[in-house]
Specification:
alpha+beta, 3-stranded antiparallel sheet, 6 helices, 5 strands, 18% strand, DUF5753, DUF5753 domain-containing protein
């Protein structure tokens, strides 16, 4: 759910030398179309507070990114929760980013785990159960979707906006 400028800043800072930044941007841009398709999937996102407070790119880039999250949180079928610093230690602190993907009409399920060195698709039942449980625990530790998450996003948006001066 990254804006192009935010994604570019992240990719440029983290990709291996000789990587194709524009290709990576293109791949992420195609994923941006998902929430706007008539057959869009249900999306449940948990974003750490650090991810919205950390200045990636210029303050204007952060404003744009946070505004995008606020807009997406108002879309049908999209739930965004912030995992606040006040949640303290949590079950996924040592894990790379992960996505639990379920395609009910086809009976498919996988976990996609992404790290700097590799990306994995985990399909065995034990992994699916473990990551589903981890996601449920994170949802319990995160702020409720809706007003609490929106309020924190708006507060952080103001902070980034004040840095432009």
């Amino acid at each position: 759910m990254q804006t192009e400028r935010y994604a570019r800043a992240v990719i440029e800072a983290t990709l291996h030398p000789n990587s194709d930044v524009d290709r990576e941007i293109e791949v992420r841009s195609r994923r941006q179309e998902l929430p706007h398709r008539p057959d869009r999937p249900e999306l449940r996102l948990i974003v750490s507070e650090g991810a919205v407070r950390q200045e990636v790119g210029a303050p204007a880039v952060m404003e744009e990114q946070i505004q995008r999250l606020i807009e997406l949180a108002g879309e049908p079928g999209i739930a965004i929760q912030l995992l606040p610093f006040s949640a303290g230690a949590h079950v996924a602190m040592t894990l790379p980013a992960f996505i639990v993907i379920r395609v009910a009409q086809h009976g498919l399920a996988t976990v996609y785990a992404e790290s700097r060195a590799s990306s994995l698709f985990l399909t065995n039942r034990e992994d699916l159960d473990e990551y589903t449980s981890l996601f449920s625990k994170l949802r319990g530790a995160a702020l409720d979707e809706g007003r609490p998450t929106r309020r924190l996003l708006e507060d952080v948006l103001q902070i980034h906006g004040s840095r432009k001066d």
